[in-house]
Write a structure and sequence with these properties.
Blueprint (H helix, E strand, L loop, with lengths): L1 E6 L4 H13 L3 E7 L19 E5 L5 H10 L4 E4 L6 H6 L2 H20 L4 E7 L23 H20 L3 E6 L1 E3 L8 H10 L4 E4 L5 E6 H14 L5 E4 L4 E3 H11 L7 E4 L14 H7 L7 H14 L1 H8 L2 H8 L5
Helix pairs in contact: 1-7, 2-4, 4-5, 6-8
The structure holds nicotinamide-adenine-dinucleotide (NAD) and thymidine-5'-diphosphate (TYD).
């Protein structure tokens, strides 16, 4: 059996990956290790309940004793590390947990992977490690790392550490660096779900700065199709950028959501900018396309419509979330709202 340790599998992207891989293949035995932070939710795992080749363990990747125990017990052959603190705004409010989970946690997984001689270690990373672009140019895998937020610094550190384990110990590491994701089950602190839910709740839509910061958007399903391709075919020691060539200024996305939901642009409120706000991200994904034959399948228009529909149909899911811990965060962030 192919025993795969998937970390962070109760979060937005990790749960989507597990749902997808369990649907696609039954020769993977998935061990999902997740701490269940505010962002982890077992309800996101729709298929797994019924599967014999799926196991959930609640725990922290920084817990070396637990991690080593799991490697031994499940005879782990592969690791896919999604687990992380993932929100830039939270990293601005407090960086410590970002370094604990994203840097030290990854180190624990790398050390165990070395000890138990895993056959592949996939580090799920982000385009934010490259920093910010002006209006021209794209991030390639050769772009020097220039992370600007505590979040992106923690991710860049983990990437460098993973690559050093390849270089120094020959650990079969691969890294993916993806652009901004959207889709179902995304925690409503990120731009797209936040704007959808505020619109549905008749609340103001807080746009940072002038609204002209650009992000490059990809549907979570396309991201995970790429993760699978890199996991199965990626070359050891290599980095693969993942993006769908869908650059958009934030304000356009907000207006699109309002249009789709038949609401007025008067709901938009320009608020104080995020400190150190990166201006533009844009990914060149030529390498994964030409070397691994991956291409995005979904258009932005279709996938955003599907995503909006999902939030309309799954009110219970997000109502429970915004009435809990998130509510505190929502009220306190920069004292803006
Ligand atoms: P998320 O915040 O929705 O989920 C993170 C998951 O990791 C949660 O289930 C949480 O409980 C778990 N977790 C956090 N710390 C942990 C720890 N110490 N031990 C065990 N589990 C822990 O994040 P996401 O959006 O699904 O992102 C997943 C990964 O993809 C992250 O590594 C992130 O950096 C990367 N990424 C995200 C995006 C994006 O747009 N969301 C884009 C590119 C890359
Ligand atoms: P976000 O979803 O937090 O992702 P990231 O910062 O990792 O790219 O934010 C996406 C963009 O949207 C970013 O430029 C910040 C902006 N933004 C707002 O304007 N208002 C908001 O309330 C949020 C959460 C984000």
């Amino acid at each position: 059996m192919n025993n795969v340790l998937v970390t962070g599998g109760a979060g937005f992207i990790g749960s989507n990956f597990i749902n997808y891989i369990l649907d696609e293949r039954d020769d993977y035995n998935i061990i999902n290790l997740d701490k269940l932070t505010y962002a982890g939710n077992l309800e996101n795992l729709v298929l797994s309940e019924t599967k014999k080749n799926y196991h959930f363990i609640k725990g922290d990747i920084i817990n070396a004793e637990l991690v080593n125990y799991l490697f031994q017990k499940f005879d782990i052959k592969y690791v896919i590390n999604f687990a992380a603190e993932s929100h830039v705004d939270r990293s601005i409010l407090g960086s410590e947990v970002f370094f604990r989970s994203n840097v030290l946690g990854t180190n624990v997984l790398l050390e165990a992977s070395r000890k138990f001689e895993v056959e592949k270690f996939l580090q799920v990373s982000t385009d934010e490690v490259y920093g910010s672009l002006d209006s021209e140019g794209l991030f390639t895998e050769e772009t020097p790392l220039h992370p600007n937020s505590p979040y992106s610094v923690s991710k860049a550190s983990a990437d460098m550490m993973a690559l050093s384990f390849h270089h120094t110990y020959g650990l079969p590491v691969v890294i993916t660096r993806c652009s901004n994701n959207y889709g179902s089950y995304q925690f409503p602190e990120k731009l797209i779900p936040l704007m959808i839910i505020n619109t549905l709740n008749n609340k103001k839509l807080p746009v940072y700065g002038d609204g002209m910061n650009v992000r490059d958007w990809i549907y979570v399903v396309d991201h995970n199709r790429a993760v699978k391709a890199v996991f199965e075919k990626g070359k050891e020691g290599e980095v693969y950028n993942i993006g769908a060539r869908t650059e958009m200024p934030n304000i356009e996305i907000v207006k699109l959501i309002l249009r789709e939901l038949g609401k007025s642009e008067d709901m938009i409120e320009y608020v104080k900018d995020r400190p150190g706000h990166d201006r533009r991200y844009a990914i060149d994904s030529t390498k994964i396309e030409s070397e691994l034959g991956w291409n995005p399948k979904f258009t932005f228009e279709d996938a955003v419509s599907q995503t909006i529909k999902w939030y309309l149909d799954n009110e219970q899911w997000w109502k429970r979330i915004i009435s809990g811990e998130y509510q505190n965060y929502y009220q306190t962030q920069y004292g803006l709202r």
